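Onboarding guide, step 5: your first structure request.
Type a short instruction followed by the sequence, for example:

Predict the 3D structure of this protein.
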Amino acid sequence: MKKQTAWCLFLALVIASSSCSTDGEIAEDTLENLDSVEDMDDDSEDAPMDEENNLGDGDSEETLGQECPENGETYFVESKGLISIEFEDTAYSEDWELKKDTENLSGDGYLVWTGNPSMGSPGEGTLLYRIQIDRPGTYQFVWKSSFRKGDNGTEHNDSWLRFPDAQDFYGSKQNGESKVYPKGSGKTPNPNGASAEGWFKIYRSGNNKAFNWQARTSDHDAHQIYVQFAEKGLYTMEVSARSDYHGIDRFLLFDSTYSLDEAINAGESFSEKEECR
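The system replies with structure tokens like these:
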């Protein structure tokens, strides 16, 4: 239909201008204009297709592909190498209670596990977070947590953490001289203390019950937590209960362009949340 319309307009113009040209000029001009009309039609047909497929870097259709969960499930979007998420911003069981009984909290409060401890068996009361990575690389993980029972900071101070589909998940000392990998990952060495099925026990230290930014693994040999995302795409983070009355408020993932303090400050704006369609 587009080509027919263009031809009709062109012929009308040729006829209208023929009184001012010789027959040879009309024929030559006609051939040149025929080529230009053909090119115009080709471009007009291709344009909508180009516009439809021109997603650009970071657009969810390009990076998510078939990895997007079922329609209606939500995921969080990394931006400029930073992710900042409230723990309560996902589905959770009744044994995770949402509380806001202290200061220095963000969002709607914090989650605290009030069910039975799960010291040696990760996977109880699992919290699931889908994360869209558009800037691949190595990210440090840290959470803001507190022990919410008693006065001993070595009790009620840890939960389980796993990244089941990341390229690498490990603990490292700040000088980089030592790394540990979760038991069940097929990699060694493994941390001191509890670990199983690709899960790390993540703890915080100190007897101050305030919510602090700290995440460590390996008992008596503290290692910071790192995750490597090799490609753009949607990844899963899982948290499950270990100690009862461990309160978790918010977590950050940030790449090497940030120091911890810079990530904490920048993370005051929470990550954008999208819905799979």
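Each response can be followed by summary notes, for example: The first strand starts at residue 74 and ends at 77.
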